[in-house]
Amino acid sequence: MKRQCDILLVACMFGAMLVIAGCGGGGGSGAPSSGNSSPPTSDGAAQNVAVVTVGGGPANRINLLFVTVIICAPGDSTACQAVDNVLVDTASTGLRIFASQLTVPLQPQTDSGGNPLAACGQFADGTVWGSMKLADVKIAGETAKAVPIQLIADPAFAAVPTNCSGIGALRNTIQAFGASGVLGVSVFRQDCGAACERNAIPGTYYACAATGCKPAALATGKQLQNPVALFGQNNNGVIIDLPAVAAEGAATVSGSLIFGIGTQSNNGLGNALVLPVDPTRGTFTTLYANRFYTGSFIDSGSNALFFNDGNSVPVSSGGTTAMPFCKQTFSAGFFCPLGTQTFSAMNQGSNAVIGTVGFSVANAESLFTSNPGHRVFGNLAGPVSGTAFDWGLPFYFGRRVYTAIEGKNTPGGVGPYVAY
Description:
Elements: E1 49-55, E2 64-72, E3 80-89, E4 93-98, E5 107-108, E6 117-123, E7 126-139, E8 142-152, H1 162-165, H2 174-177, E9 181-185, H3 194-198, E10 205-209, E11 212-215, E12 237-241, E13 253-259, E14 274-276, E15 284-288, E16 291-298, E17 305-307, E18 341-348, E19 354-361, H4 364-370, E20 381-383, E21 390-391, E22 400-404, E23 409-410, E24 413-414, E25 417-419
Parallel strand pairs: 3-9, 4-8, 16-21, 17-20
Antiparallel strand pairs: 1-2, 1-13, 2-3, 2-7, 4-9, 5-7, 6-7, 6-10, 7-8, 10-11, 12-13, 12-22, 14-25, 15-16, 15-18, 18-19, 22-25, 23-24
């Protein structure tokens, strides 16, 4: 997870129904080594709690976490619209909504010369293109005012620059994207930060004059923002609290997206294991099967665990085996071991604290064919190259997982960190 959505979320939603393959996402269904999975309280502090659901969404996919976001014209509490099926992603920053989902008038963002601004969002399996607008963003009882957001597939910005579309397949439809938008609530305040303020980087931000859209440097305050960091309170991070899922999965499950860490009676850190992450990349180290995965991250936008499985060591047998890849089209990109395998890994943050995590990997083909109505699974995993261990959405099942925002004070120290 770097800025400007590198490893991210939506990437892993692309593919046919059931296939959200090869893009990163979690499969840890083992019991948490620490943390608190109790439900939020029902007192007045619950205004900082939004209901989230895991299911197939508008494109009938697997393991996607959705929330409803209310978009308002800046300063106008009557010109508002609720958008359902917005993907919650802890590995990207910023709110991106499909233009087709909104009718409320939003103020365009412009550069110093008055030219409208646009953005190119890069995901692991493609890109999205659209205009930059300002909106008041409301989730549960929290509001962020005048937030820069992206309108994906804005018809007024139909021409996509080649240095955006050439990065990967264009995912400018809800069906291709798998959601009505994405709410990026990572450890970062902006999605690109100082790098995009200093340089005009192709594939990030653009100024659009009559002659076309060209890459532009953009001040951090005008970039896509983490809306949570702009809330008036409960603005130092988020907690995702999801129930455990049975081995055979479920059709759908519901949980909570809780704003703030240690700011209310329902968002205490408790005894959660705190892992400070790299301040520029948002990553930590995972030790698995005698290999160090130094670019690891926790990502609610990935639909399975994704890692380079060159030498898996099942805890149950003590033996050594490499898990086979699934061969059927509907399960391509996932692992298909002969039977469910149980593993153990260790995560370490920059504070040298180490925590053990247990997880299981089932045969994806068997899961899908035996449970055709299910869209939620806690034991999916798949292969990916490199030195990143992507702890995707199934890692969240049965846990409270914390994402602390950079520079914000919390009971676990100043962000950025993750905890569980």
